[in-house]
Amino acid sequence: MKTVFVRAACKHIPKGRDGHDIPSLGHLLERGCGVSLDSDDLGLIHCDPKVRYGEQAVNPDAAYAAHQALLRLLKTLSD
User: Fold this and answer.
1) For residue 62, what pLDDT band results from cuts at 50, 70 and 90?
2) In the chain, where do the E strands start and end?
3) How does 50-67 read in b/e, with b if 16+ C-beta sit within 10 Å?
C-alpha cells in the first residue's frame, strides 16, 4: 500500500508502527490520494505483529479470509 502513496504523490507516507496499521493506511489513501478501499477488507487484512512474525497462531479460517480480502484489495489497486 505504501507504493500507492508514492505513485499517487501523496505528501505523507506513514512510517514505523503507523506504516503497519492497515485500516489507517486505507483511510489515509482515501483521504489524501482519492483511493477508496473496502474498510471491512482492510480490517480482515490487519493483524497483530506477533501473527506476522509467527509468534502467535491464527485460526485457519481467519487466515483464509484475510488472504481473500488481500486479493480483493490488490484487484482494486490494480484497476
Assistant:
1) very high
2) none
3) eeeeeeeeeeeeeeeebe
Q: Which of 25, 36, 24 is nearest to 2 (CA)?
A: 25
**Residue 6's closest CA among 22, 23, 19?**
19
Q: In the predicted model, what is the mean pLDDT of the chain?
A: 84
Cell of 1: 500500500
Domain coverage including residue 58: 2-78
Number of domains in the chain: 1
For the question of whether the overall pTM of this predicted structure is more than 0.85, the answer is no
In residues, how long is the chain?
Answer: 79
Distance between CA atoms of residues 74 and 30, nearest Å: 15
For residue 14, the tally of other CB atoms under 10 A from its CB is: 16
